[in-house]
Amino acid sequence: MVPLYDDERHDYLLANEKMHIIQSPTVFSFSLDAVLLAHFAYVPIKKGNILDLCTGNGVIPLLLSQRTNASIIGVEIQERIIDMAMRNVTLNELGEQISMVQGDLKEMQAEFGHSKFDVVTCNPPYFRTPEKTEHNKNEFLTIARHEVYCTLEDVVKACKLHVRPGGKVAMVHRPGRLVDIIALFRKYRLEPKRIQFVSPKQGRDANMLLIEGTRDGKADLTILPPLFIYHDDNTYTKEAEDIIYGRQ
Fold this sequence. Notes:
Blueprint: E1 9-13, E2 16-23, H1 32-40, E3 49-53, H2 59-64, E4 71-76, H3 79-91, E5 98-102, H4 109-112, E6 117-122, H5 139-145, H6 152-162, E7 163-173, H7 178-187, E8 190-199, E9 208-215, E10 222-223, E11 227-228, H8 238-244
Parallel strand pairs: 3-4, 3-6, 4-5, 6-7, 8-10, 8-11
Antiparallel strand pairs: 1-2, 7-9, 8-9
Helix pairs in contact: 6-7
């Protein structure tokens, strides 16, 4: 039996009652952005190597394992949260496919070398935090949501370092950082190939974006149709429901 600590709980991983995930409201719980990224990202089906940076409690590797037989490694800087991720791997008996590494994404070259992964995914901290007064009072949430230990440039640089030439990098972020993301992707030779904007409802501004780039790729960007999460009556759209409940 995999132990639970403090206010942790076992949840089903979406609608898949065969998979479970350990979460905590005060330490880490996954959100919709991770689910959308795991669905959006290209993955090799039968074999390959995938790296997930800022892995949190390992939700993206767990979700990707349902789409691929590739080897998956998650990296997380927070000791308390990587312990949760490791227990999630054990809980779902995925130790032969998924491994977790505690560490700073800026310092993983000694661990992984460079250009070793077919795909790199990342759900990074979204918010710049110039002043400590802007930090969340919960340190775990501050580190997960704000650029305390890594900036957007640190993330993009790490993605480029570890993805092979021709490999894919997929990221979820806020639309307000799109120009920064594209500029940094091109600075580090990750050519943007696909972008999808996500809105709560039709007629509402996008509050999330998904972007995928190819290392050393040629310029050719596709803007995918927008994804709407809710109808006006606050029920899920079919597209969102299919993703959230693993029907696609």
